[in-house]
Structure formats: structure tokens, C-alpha cells
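Your task:
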Amino acid sequence: MKKSVLSLASAMLFAFSANAQKVEFEEYDLSNGMHVILHQDNSAPVVTVGVMYHVGSKDEVEGKTGMAHFYEHLLFTGTKNIGRGEWSKIVAANGGAGNANTTWDRTYYYETFPSNNLELGLWMESERLLHPTIDQKAVDTQNEVVKEEKRQRMDNAPYGKIIYGDVYRHIFDKHNYKNSLIGSMKDLDGATLEEFKAFYDKWYMPNNAVLVIAGDFETKNTKKLIKNYFESIPARTLPKRETTVEPERTKEKRVKEYDSNIQLPAILLAHKTPAMKERDAKVLDVISTILSNGKSSRLYKKLVDDKKKALQVFSFARNLEDYSVYNIGAIPLGKTSLEDLIKEMDEEILKLQTELISDKDLQKVRNKFENNFVASNSNVQGIANSLARNYMLIGNTNNINKELEIVNSITKEEIRAVAKKYLAKDRRIVIEYLPESKKK
């Protein structure tokens, strides 16, 4: 969602020492089941208030897709005590910035304020949970906003179906990760007001949420405010989540995907991989770094620098709660064919599957992960998001402090074994990503 109203100087967000390697926090539950995480850092007069709800696009039902992402927008309309269209104005008038984002697994709302406006942030988030404005006017207005976002991010963005996961329908046959994150505009247009309200009632409750506060605050008073604003909100019965088991692929699958916004094709090797809490998921993150993170990575050096067969190469994991997705891809240069790129990428994958990486390469990977850790936790917004995500999707808030330890414990033998297991040809989907003009 691009709804941020920025009035704080970005320098004020830096409330985490670059030398620190441990994030201190406290966590507890309210009587209504809402989980609370507090990270106190008084080094800068700024505080983030965030609420993460355990609902995403995987929780939608067939024919009613797009609801989770739609609420990311709808819940900025206003509430019983916040006038229609006033939410962002209130945030801006009080020196804050606010935003929200959705994944397949969760939806996250947050505001960052000067610390003397902590209570305002708590009140606004409690308002969002207590009595938001969900009426036909709000639905109609946000429907147009979502359509425009889809046009910009996916329909008119080169390679947007790769970036935003629309190609996941080729990877998952049963699991709802196959659904588009933004959803179907036809489904949203056909949904009734009662169906929108029912989705909110089904998922938006304190016992399906984690409240996180990070930054400059006084703990005793903050706990009192949290109790005042949130504990009286009644819990409701959580819907039972059905566990969908995605069958393992035993034969390579080849498909074609077309994009009207590109002139150059791309090749994508897509894989279903383990849930984000699994150690192998982190090993695959390491493999991704080895293959394509930076100009010294194996694929970049080989295909872009040395052989000049690719304009760009990439590999990335999207780590999700139930399963993850790992993609390796390239855009050809000149007359290089997609099959030639597959051959070249397979050679590098085979090396990972049969040879041990060098001590130098392993240390380089560890250094990059340490830099990424410091960057992601360099401000209170980043820390708040990480704490909530680790609690909700990993099941262990302190995983925020274990990630580097896990990476540093990964062995060369593990990298070889994981590459052999999950990057096997019979487990993958080969996606030819082609210009629309190539469609017959």
C-alpha cells in the first residue's frame, strides 16, 4: 500500500546501534488473547505502533479472492470516531507516518510517531479493531484504488507477475499460495457488502493479532495504556484453518507465461521449498546469495560479466508460513536462447549439488547476512515488523536474535545437500516468461 504520510525526518528513525547484535524485547498476552511485544529503545524520540493480523490471501476462499489485500486499504477509510478520509490527515498533523502491507500469510498496519504521540497511535489502532467504517461507499472507493494498484504493480509493470507472485499458480496445485496476492478484480466486483463485513468479522479480532511497540517509551505507563485501549475488546472464536498439503512434484513441469509490458523474455526455474521456520529455508537463502547476490555471485559473474549471455540474473526465496518459493532466473542478452540460459544455470546448480563451496565464499555469505541483519534492524519500524513476523509466522519471537547464529552454523555440506534435494530438476517448474507478441 502506498499511503504513507511522512513528516518525521528519516534520521529520527535510527534507534538501533549498527554494532548491536541482539534485540531486547518483552512479550505477554492480554486477557482477550492479544499478544503484545515491547522493544524499548530511548536513543531517539520516536516510536512505532504496529498490529499484525494472522490473515492473508491464503485464507481466502475460491470466488472471493482479494479480500485480505482489500482490507489493507479499506481500514484506512475511518472509524466511528475518525471521520471518513481523516486517518492520514491525523497521522500527518501529529508528525507521523503510517502504512500497511499484506502477504499470503498476514496483514500488518503501523504508525510511527514522535514518542509523545504514543497514545494517539494506540488509540487509532484500537479504533481500527473496534469499529471501522465498512460501508458501500468505502468499498466502492477502495475498489477503484485497488484496481489502480493492480494496474500499476502487475498489469503495467515489466515482469510484474514474477515480482508479485502471480506465477505461483504454476507452482501450487492445491494450496492457496496459488492465489494472486492482490486477488481477482472480478471477485472483488462481485462481492457484496455483507461478504466484506463477514471477512472482517472472521479474522479481525484481538486473539488473531499481535501488537508491537518499538522505540522510545516508558514501560509501566505503556502497559497501562495498552490495557486501557485493547484489553476490553472482546475475543471471538477463531476459524479453524484447514491444513492443505501440496503434493511433491516428481516430474519437471514446463509452462509459458505472457506479459504485454516486456520486450525481452525471461526464464524462471521455480521451486516449492520448505516453510520459513525450517532450517532448510535459511540454507536456501544462503544458496540464493551464492548464486546471484551481487556482481561477484556465480550466475552474475558467469552469465553477465564473462560470457555476456544475460542482461540480468536473479534468484530469490519468498519465505512463507506453510511452504516457500525459490526462483532462479535470467533475462537473455542478444541472440542467447532461453534453453542456453537453462543449460548454463543448471551447470552452476550442479556444482552446488556436487561440490563444496570454498571457505572464502562461505565467509562472504556470512558477512552479507550480517550486513542485512544490521540494515533490517537499523530503525524501530524494521524491528517492530521483524518482532511481529517472528512471533506470528515462525512461532518464536526470539528468532530475530537467532537468524545470524543459524546462518553462521550452516555448513558447506548442508548447502550441497539442500541444493541436491530442493533444486532437483524433477521438482521444478520451468516458466518461459514471454512478450505478449509471442503468444500464438
